[in-house]
Fold this protein.
Amino acid sequence: MTADPAPARHDAADTEIATDDIATDGIAPLGPDSVAWKVFGDLTFVLGAPRRLLIDVAHPVVATGVREFSVFETDPYGRAERTLDMIMGVVYGQEDALDMARRLRERHRDIKGQNPDGSRWSSLNPEAFHWVHASLVHGIYTQQKELGRGWKPGEVEQFYLEMRQVGRMYGVREQDMPEN
């Protein structure tokens, strides 16, 4: 018998990222000289996906959304492929990156519900949205350090700046991301 995760305790009415009015001024898609292009081009980052997914579902909103809406149990490869396509589309999409990020937000717009206590939750809760992005960034950082090509001087800082930019494209609010 497995225990249900804690209820998602975020009131969706007060804390939901807008899906269509993300300020994209000053957010430029990544280019071929970016550290992120090199890191995501090393497909060993895929090996860390199970670890990152476990960290993702440690957040109650993410766990509830996955449990109630995801097809990972019936279509695990299709679900993984769609996730990878979305990430790669934003990292490598250049002129299409912002549109790909908008589509990710749109896909998550209706993933919401109500807890048994009556409180509401939404996958677009800023804290949960940042949690998933942060687990991606930290997981890839760790993966590259331990199993990948490693990090050259200055690359970690540059990678983080680029991934903050990716987070902004996805709709993660500036105030929800640590400066470093």
